[in-house]
Amino acid sequence: MAIIQGTEGNDDLVSSNSRENDIIVALGGNDRVEARGGDDLIYPGLGNDRIEGGDGRDTVRVGGDIAQWEVYRYEDEGILRGPEGVKSLLDVEGLEFADNPGTYELDDFNEFFAYTYLASNLDVADALGVNPDAAWDHFRDFGSVEGRQLSFDGNAYLAANPDVLANEDFGANSDQGGARHYLAAGRAEGRPTDFAGLSYIASHEDLISAFGVNEALGTEHYVQNGFNEGRAVSFDGLDYVASYGDLIDAFKGAGGAMAIEDAGAAHYIQNGRAEERTVGFDGLQYVASHTDLIEAFRGGNGAEAYADAGALHYIQNGYAEERVVDQFNEASYAAANMDLASAGVTSADALAAHWIQYGLAEGRTGAYDPVVA
């Protein structure tokens, strides 16, 4: 057995015997280690290192706890990224972590999600195309050291696009399928990538008990079970926040619409349900009550978009401005515009959406004068 030790600088450490079991201690620096044959134990130390195990069973041992490290595997290669740097692995079988007993098999870790990496780093996708091998090469050689992440949520993308989820070519492989569709079509189509997983949980009593405020589990449940069960998101976190002055004061600075939506849903799950709070605000009615908001928001995509824009405006501005929220009278609007019934525009939401999108611009009349801000 040979012991090969490097320095605190950048070293090339190559075993001189292709059959011997070596202990290689690289120490600091950005090192290249070539263990060759034998069952070798390699301590890479601090730095960004390239480790080639060669024949035999080779094990890399790093400091800290496994929870501090990200482990990626692609065919016979791997990446370890953590507190001691980035370790690029080739023909390495075992991983050991100083704070954890035993040896972990590299093959037991999930394979690198190449499509997710590309969807998370669109500049790389634009440069390389949708090529999984090229994505791995980029991550191994550049992205891992640059700190690039696999942040695209394929489950959320599928949940936000039920037609894609229903397509067996994509929905059956949730994270990779979602990323693959997004790269192939969804990005160009401008499809949404976020799903209100907390509002989905808040919509179902059994999920509140099962998942609490774990949004990832809620989204995963919808993709794997809820969609096929016919479940939907009926709770609206924005309208919930807009229904209570104390919640408006607490959450209006949380960020954009999705952040406030999540904050509202989390509050309901953790507190509001037990307090028997309800949703009393109607964002669609609010927009329909103000001509300046109609002008601002009618370019949106339908009733849901108007309602969300209205709730967000009320939370961030309208509440402080003491704007009224329910001036629109759908019954009077329908009575003054009898042609709408024959077109199927009869529900309260459909009438409000019609007034916002068409009625005001067409000069239609109703039984009220909308408030002019």
Automatic annotation (TrEMBL):
GO terms for molecular function: calcium ion binding. It comes from the Bacteria. PROSITE patterns: HEMOLYSIN_CALCIUM. Pfam families: HemolysinCabind (PF00353). InterPro entries: Hemolysin-typ_Ca-bd_CS (IPR018511), Hemolysn_Ca-bd (IPR001343), Serralysin-like_metalloprot_C (IPR011049). This is Calcium-binding protein.
